[in-house]
Write a structure and sequence with these properties.
Layout (H helix, E strand, L loop, with lengths): L2 H4 L32 H24 L5 H18 L6 E3 L4 E3 L26 H15 L38 H16 L17
Antiparallel strand pairs: 1-2
Helix pairs in contact: 2-3, 3-4, 3-5
């Protein structure tokens, strides 16, 4: 394995949660994230990490101190997440849409006995080109939103808002730990850590996603 891969491949040794509500692979002996990858899929993932680091070095020289290099690096981390989701042995082929369904198409890691694999260098579903276009479309649409959202975190039993200050309250079950979001996030956490933590956010310095918060 090339030297640029050896520095990051240990991050793919991340243990998969044994919570059987959302994680089926460990039941069948696939206990680590790397167990879900073919050798060529692992290579593509690690090579992409190396490319992202090289791109940031170039961008930081072009856009010194104005934040654009960091913003573009964040977008590249989204690309890495798309490649990880659609480049593993849990992917399925959607016969209706004729598209590749990623590992998290249903919000959990289900076991698959026959999987679909895309050519990451093609222009078809599951490719890097397709992922870049998807991310670009999302960014383009979000950038047209004029209203700025405010996010508050806390207990629903004790909020800082006055009674009757909302026209509506929208909820999105399931609640609490019915879906282990923090464990699911670990699938991407280690990958984002390799790109973002050295340059932008100290959030990714921890080994995995915080489970107690």
């Amino acid at each position: 394995m090339p030297k640029y891969c050896k520095r990051w491949n240990q991050l793919l040794d991340q243990e998969i949660s044994h919570d059987t509500r959302a994680f089926a692979p460990p039941i069948y002996g696939l206990t680590k994230q790397v167990d879900l990858l073919l050798a060529r899929q692992e290579f593509v993932l690690l090579k992409t990490i190396g490319i992202c680091h090289d791109a940031y070095a170039i961008l930081s020289d072009l856009y010194k101190g104005d934040g654009r290099a960091e913003a573009l690096l964040t977008y590249l981390s989204l690309l890495l997440g798309r490649i990880a989701n659609q480049g593993n042995t849990l992917c399925k082929y959607h016969t209706g849409r004729e598209t590749l369904e990623g590992a998290f198409s249903v919000g959990r890691l289900q076991m698959t006995w026959d999987f679909a694999e895309a050519n990451p260098l093609s222009s078809s579903t599951g490719s890097i080109k397709n992922a870049i276009e998807w991310i670009g479309n999302v960014i383009a649409n979000i950038s047209t939103i004029d209203n700025i959202a405010s996010v508050f975190r806390g207990s629903a039993l004790n909020t800082p808002f006055e009674s009757g200050s909302f026209h509506a309250i929208v909820t999105d079950p399931p609640y609490y730990d019915n879906v282990p979001y923090a464990d699911l996030a670990d699938f991407f956490f280690g990958l984002f850590k390799t790109i973002i933590s050295p340059y932008i956010s100290r959030t990714f310095l921890r080994r995995c996603y915080t489970k107690k918060e």
